[in-house]
Specification:
alpha+beta; N-acetyltransferase; eight-stranded mixed beta sheet; GNAT family N-acetyltransferase; EC 2.3.-.-
């Protein structure tokens, strides 16, 4: 990965821009039951599919805007445990913050820790004026995390090429 893109660290985590070196991890993450239920099938069924997804869906945004999808790595053992990022998504006003973690790393505070540093980077490093998020009505854990991050529910929306009604959240600055 080119060093011109920022990485971030927290007490327990390193967040680095996702690269082709992360293909095996992305393959595993995209095929977890909660990813498939709440995010959807991204047709990443082989390492080649995962590499192609990174090349066509993740890297172009990183190169264009300087931010995108970050692989979340646990410092104590260098385990790749999840992703968190900022996405310029069609149908969403502002920049979308999103996150997903492998099941073994749920309910340990990693999602909040990584999303909070990415939220701060969005404002401080990338000068993003409007931070949004989308989630499904059934994804209560995501809703709780978004609210803990300071985002508030605004309305239900549909995004292009998706027939699932999603909840739109926005960061309301004090």
């Amino acid at each position: 990965m080119n060093n011109k893109y920022l990485s971030f660290t927290t007490e327990r985590l390193i967040l680095k821009p996702t690269s082709l070196d992360d293909a095996e991890f992305i393959l595993a993450l995209h095929n977890t039951p909660l990813w498939l239920q709440f995010i959807g099938d991204r047709k990443t069924h082989t390492i080649e599919d995962a590499k192609n997804y990174i090349k066509t869906k993740m890297l172009p945004q990183l190169h264009k805007f300087g931010y995108g999808n970050y692989t979340v790595i646990r410092k104590k053992d260098n385990a790749k445990i999840g992703t968190c990022g900022l996405f310029n998504r069609d149908g969403v006003e502002g920049i979308d913050i999103g996150f997903a973690f492998l099941p073994d790393y749920h309910n340990q505070g990693y999602a909040y820790e990584s999303a909070n540093i990415i939220k701060e980077a969005a404002i401080t490093n990338f000068n993003i004026k409007q931070l949004s998020a989308i989630t499904m009505k059934e994804n209560l854990n995501s809703q709780k995390l978004l609210e803990k991050l300071g985002l508030v529910y605004i309305k239900d929306i549909l995004i292009p090429d998706d027939n699932e009604l999603l909840m739109l959240y926005k960061l309301v600055k004090n």
